[in-house]
Design goal:
Spore Coat Polysaccharide Biosynthesis Protein SpsA, Chain A, seven-stranded mixed β-sheet, 5 helices
């Protein structure tokens, strides 16, 4: 029996609450973070694609991100853009033709959102899921395009706009998903 091959890769970026700015840590509710992470894991498990999970610190072997469903990596060094660039680069080098990346800060993401992004990448260069805080909860690419990861205002309310405009400037075809609420440590008050 031959192994099923897919050209779809889902990347999940794990940023623990301890990886946010030190000023924000006191406002982060650990149990809420774990609930949102569990929801994201359940959604990711049900997506018809290969799955890579990238840890912000050391890789945890015995956690909800089971090696039977996820290939585990440690995020590279550098700012968020450098780390995302390396994860997408790794996926394209492995031969994936459609890559979608999500984080664990959007408790309202569903399997259908990710499947729709993969479907849109059949005819578009990029897919973005804008968030109400000015960032994005999902980014998908159908081919490498590394400039969108360089010199971006990570964690700022202009991230989506700057990334979108750069894609347009390079004549990339873009599809947008529904805007969703994305949580950060600033949004969570204990």
């Amino acid at each position: 029996m031959s192994k099923q091959v897919t050209d779809k890769l889902l990347i999940v970026f794990l940023d623990s609450p301890l990886s946010v700015d030190a000023q924000e840590v006191s406002a982060w509710d650990q149990s809420l973070f774990e609930q949102v992470e569990e929801h994201t894991c359940e959604v990711a498990r049900s997506v018809d694609a290969r799955r890579h999970v990238y840890y912000s610190s050391e890789i945890i072997e015995d956690d909800r991100w089971s090696r039977t469903r996820f290939i585990k990596y440690k995020q590279s060094e550098g700012d968020k853009g450098e780390r995302l660039k390396e994860a997408f680069r790794n996926g394209f080098k492995k031969g994936y033709g459609r890559i979608v990346c999500i984080g664990v800060c959007c408790g309202d993401i569903h399997t259908q959102d990710i499947q729709k992004a993969f479907d849109l990448l059949n005819t578009r260069n990029a897919v973005m899921g804008p968030s109400t805080n000015g960032g994005y909860y999902l980014l998908g690419l159908s081919s490498p395009f590394e400039p969108i990861f360089d010199e971006k205002p990570w964690g700022k309310d202009t991230l989506f706009k700057k990334t979108y405009l750069e894609l347009m400037m390079y004549n990339k075809s873009i599809a947008l998903l529904e805007e969703k609420v994305m949580k950060s440590a600033k949004d969570i008050v204990v």
